[in-house]
Design goal:
Layout: E1 2-6, E2 12-18, E3 24-30, E4 34-42, E5 50-58, H1 67-81, E6 85-88, H2 91-106, E7 110-111, H3 116-129
Parallel strand pairs: 5-6, 6-7
Antiparallel strand pairs: 1-2, 2-3, 3-4, 4-5
Length: 132
C-alpha cells in the first residue's frame, strides 16, 4: 500500500505500509524517497482484527509540514479498508480520535480505548526488537 499526498507546502509525499521490519509502521517519505517519519503499530496475536498504534514521529527537519497528521489520517483510512479496530496508545492517535472519533466511526472506522494488555504487548514488542 502506497498513497500519494501533498503536505501543507504543496510538496508531494508518499505514505506507505512497511511490514518488513520488526515493528511495522506507516511511513511518510518526501523529496523522492527521503524517510521523514513513521507511525509504529503492532497487530495483537490474540485479536487478528485489531491494530495498536503506539508511537508516531516525524524528523524535526520536516516539522510544520503536516506530515504527522497525514500519517494518522492515512493509517486510520487504511484501518477502515482492512476492517481493523484501532487501539490508540500513541497520544497523537488518541487525540485525533478524541476530536474526530464520531467522524471516523461514520466513515466505517472502529476504535477502542487501550487496556493494560495492549500496553504490555507494546512494551514486550519494543523490548524484544530494540526497535522504535
Amino acid at each position: 500500500m502506497t498513497e500519494q499526498r501533498t503536505d501543507k507546502t504543496g510538496a508531494p509525499v508518499s505514505i506507505a505500509l512497511d511490514q518488513n521490519r520488526a515493528i511495522s509502521a506507516y511511513t511518510v517519505s518526501v523529496d523522492g524517497g527521503t524517510l521523514a517519519g513513521r507511525a509504529d503499530f503492532v497487530d495483537p496475536p490474540r485479536a487478528a482484527d485489531e491494530r495498536v498504534f503506539f508511537h508516531t514521529e516525524v524528523d524535526a527537519e520536516f516539522g510544520g509540514r503536516g506530515l504527522a497528521g497525514l500519517l494518522v489520517r492515512e493509517a486510520l483510512a487504511d484501518s477502515i479498508r482492512r476492517n481493523l479496530t484501532v487501539v490508540p496508545v500513541c497520544p497523537l492517535f488518541a487525540r485525533h480520535l478524541k476530536e474526530h472519533g464520531d467522524e471516523y466511526e461514520a466513515e466505517g472506522g472502529r476504535f477502542r480505548r487501550p487496556v493494560p494488555a495492549d500496553l504490555a504487548l507494546v512494551k514486550e514488542t519494543v523490548q524484544n526488537t530494540g526497535d522504535a
